[in-house]
Specification:
The structure is a homodimer. By secondary structure, chain A is of the alpha/beta class. The first copy, chain A, has eight helices and eleven strands. In chain A, helix 1 (11-22) links the parallel strand 1 and strand 2 (27-32). In chain A, helix 1 packs across helix 7 (179-190). The A-B interface holds A 54, 56-57, 81-83, 85-87, 90-91, 94-95, 118-119, 121-122, 126-127, 129-130, 133-134, 136-137, 144 and B 54, 56-57, 81-83, 85-87, 90-91, 94, 118-119, 121-122, 126-127, 129-130, 133-134, 136-137, 144. Chains A, B: Residues 7-192 form the NAD(P)-binding domain.
C-alpha cells in the first residue's frame, strides 16, 4: 500500500513517513512544499512530491496518482496568521479530498484537533475559535465526501518519545499524547479497515495502539 | 410573508428592511447585534431580534421562529480581522442555515460575493483569499442544506442611488451595482419562487429588477 503523506515535513508527518518506511506492507510518498525538504525523506527510501497546498486541485491530484491512501496531517497550526487557517486547514484539506477523488484514491486519513464539535467553536477563546471552525468544516466535509475516511482527534501533542499505549474512543478525557504515538495511530488506522468511516479521540493510555485502533 | 433579515444593520440590510416594509406582501424582522440599533427599524414598523451571529444555533433559531424566509446579508467584510471572516461569513451563515431548519423555515436567500468559485480563491490576492474561501464554503454548504435557496452574487457595491435596472445571469461581466439595487434584487427573489434553487451574478444593467430575477 502506497501512502501520500500530506504535510510530511510537519512534526507528526516526519514520524508518519518514518514509521511507514519501517513497516512491512506500506510505502510513503512525502508531499512537501520545498525541494530542499526532499533529501531527508529520500534517505528513508520514500518518494517525494513537491506541491504547495495553495496550489490547485489538479496539481495536488498529480501527487496522489498511483497511491492507495492519503494521510492529511498538514496544518497552519493555531498560531500562524489567521489568513492561513482557512486556506490550509480547511481549503487545503478539502482540495486534497477532491484531489484524492480525482486520482481515484478512496482511503483518506485526516488528522484533526481534539474537539471540533460545534460546541467547541463556541467554547474556544477568540484567538483559537477560527482554527477550531476550520477543523470543524474540514471534518464535516470529509464525512460527506464519499471517501473511505478515518478522522483522528489527538489530545495535546507533546514531543515525548512514543509510549506505544493509548486510549482511543469517540470521546475520551482530554490528555496529552506524544506526536510519535499519533503517527503510530495513523499507521495502525491505515493497516486496519475497521477504522474506515470512524472518527475518534486519542490520548496516552493503557492499550497497545493496534488493539486500541481495532476496538474503535 | 415574514422575513428575518440577518445583518439588518449592515449597509445592504438597512435597504432590505426598508424595501420590505414598503412592499405589499412582506414584513421584516430585523436581526441586529445591539439593542440600540432597534429604534430605526421599529420606526419602520419592523420587528427586531437582538442576536449575535457568534451565539449558538438555538439562539439564532429563536429569532427565526414564525418567519417564512431568512435573508442572510451579514458579513465581516473583507477588511475586518481575519479571525472574524471564518466565524461570521462561514460559520455565522451555516449556523443561520441550521437555525432556519430548526425553526422549520425552508426559504433562504444568501448574499454572497461576486465570484466565489474555487478558481476565484486561487486568483484572489493573499489578503482577499480567506474571505473568498469563507464565502465559497458558505455557498457550497447552502447548496447541500436542503433549503429553498437563492444565492445572489452582486458586483462591486456602491452607495449610489438605486437605478432599478440590472443585468443578472449565472455569469455576467464584472461591474458595479448600488447596494439599494441589491436590496431590490433580494426582495424580488423573495417574491418570485422561480429563483429557488438558483444562484446568479448581478450588476447594473438594462432590465427591470423584477424581470431580471424572473428570467434567471
Amino acid at each position: 500500500m502506497k501512502v501520500l503523506v500530506v504535510g510530511a515535513n510537519g512534526q507528526i508527518g516526519k514520524h508518519v513517513v518514518s514509521l511507514i518506511q519501517d513497516s512491512e506492507g506500506l510505502e510513503a510518498r512525502a508531499m512537501i512544499r520545498k525541494e530542499e525538504q526532499a533529501a531527508s525523506f529520500e534517505n528513508l527510501g520514500a518518494e517525494t512530491a513537491v506541491v504547495d497546498l495553495e496550489d490547485d486541485i489538479k496539481t495536488i491530484s498529480k501527487a496522489a496518482e498511483g497511491v492507495d491512501a492519503v494521510v492529511f496531517t498538514a496544518g497552519s497550526g493555531p498560531n500562524t496568521g489567521k489568513d492561513k487557517t482557512i486556506l490550509i486547514d480547511l481549503d487545503g484539506a478539502v482540495k486534497t479530498m477532491e484531489a484524492a477523488k480525482a486520482a481515484g484514491v478512496k482511503r483518506f486519513v485526516l488528522i484533526s484537533s481534539f474537539d471540533t464539535r460545534r460546541e467547541a467553536i463556541q467554547a474556544a477563546s477568540e484567538s483559537f475559535a477560527p482554527y477550531v471552525a476550520a477543523k470543524h468544516y474540514a471534518d464535516e466535509w470529509l464525512k460527506r465526501a464519499d471517501l473511505d475516511y478515518t478522522i483522528i482527534h489527538p489530545g495535546r501533542l507533546t514531543n515525548d518519545k512514543g509510549k506505544g499505549q493509548v486510549h482511543a474512543a469517540v470521546e475520551v478525557e482530554r490528555n496529552e499524547i506524544p506526536r510519535e504515538d499519533v503517527a503510530a495511530v495513523i499507521v495502525a488506522s491505515l493497516e486496519n479497515e475497521a477504522s474506515i468511516g470512524k472518527e475518534f479521540q486519542v490520548v496516552t493510555g493503557n492499550t497497545k495502539i493496534e488493539e486500541a485502533v481495532a476496538s474503535i
